[in-house]
Amino acid sequence: MKRFSSRLLFTSILIITVLSVVYFMLPEEINAKQDEKSFVTHNGGIIKTTGEIIDPLYTGSDKSLRVSINGTNGEILDPVYSVQKVEFNPDKYLREFNYGRISKLENGTTVREFTIIANDDKIQEISPGVFYNVWTFNGTVPGPTIRATEGDIVRVKFINNGSKSHTMHFHGIHPAIMDGVFEIVGPNGGQFTYEFTAGPVGVHPYHCHVMPLEEHISHGLYGVYIVDPKEGRPQADEMVMVLNGFDTDFDTENNFYAANTIPFYYQHHPIQIKTNELIRIYVVNMVEFDPINNFHLHGNLYNYYPTGTSTVPSTYTDMITLSQTERGIMEFKYDYPGKYLFHAHKVEFSEKGWVGIFLVGDNPDQKSQTGIDYGN
Hints:
By secondary structure, the protein is of the alpha+beta class.
């Protein structure tokens, strides 16, 4: 009886040991197989990974990206491209205007020359820990803000250093051959020079116009083109805001929204302005995949000039709604200091990053300008 009990005890221990091994080891293998994902890259390659890859074509050298390609485990650099990371400063972009290299023709006409270089192999951290393959004009999304005066000659030397065909299509008035649609510029150094007379007055987008267009725009190939009236505009604190979004999981729905690329940036880094100072914002909506976007300002209203082609505002409001490439000029002043939100009133957009703050400070010269000394 004792011998039988000993055998029974031994057998029970053995069974428990085997079950424990199965319980603790098999789930890891099962979970690993369940978590493994397959991606088809833009060039047709297949990548399998148990981790997260924001853009499967450009895996980069980030140690957090561990992938398995063709059954080989380990950290993989993309077989075609090496990663170049993009550093983008929304504060700098906000008030930076590119007037080009300036010269004069014999008749006195101003010529403004620009060089714009396209790339499609860069990675940008658009949100903490979220890396995305951006396609850039001059290394940033958006590209540089090109600025001229009505009647100037604008000459843009375009160099395509990308792996895909690209162009530059300017909204505005110009000859057909300068429209950037049928004049495809080939990859790896292809070049084209766009030349036209600046006009009409206003704010206009430029963007790549190669098909599939949504791919080229959603990855970032766009920028702003401002044409000033010959008589100029009243002095103001001028800013550019490009409303954009990013589809980081490639399901044609944006995961992040922003004013000037970085979600929530101006909420965490408020834009500093002064009371009783004219603020002028050139706003352009470049969001892909969504039919509308909008801009709501707190504690104030603004004069709005659609496309900026008229010097007379069309409305006095605190919110405008824009479709893709729709744009305009907003002008306003704040009477009272403090913090004021600005954001999309499509709440999904604001909760995913399209929100900011104006930090309005006292204007030291306010009393002499207005006769009012707030706080006294």
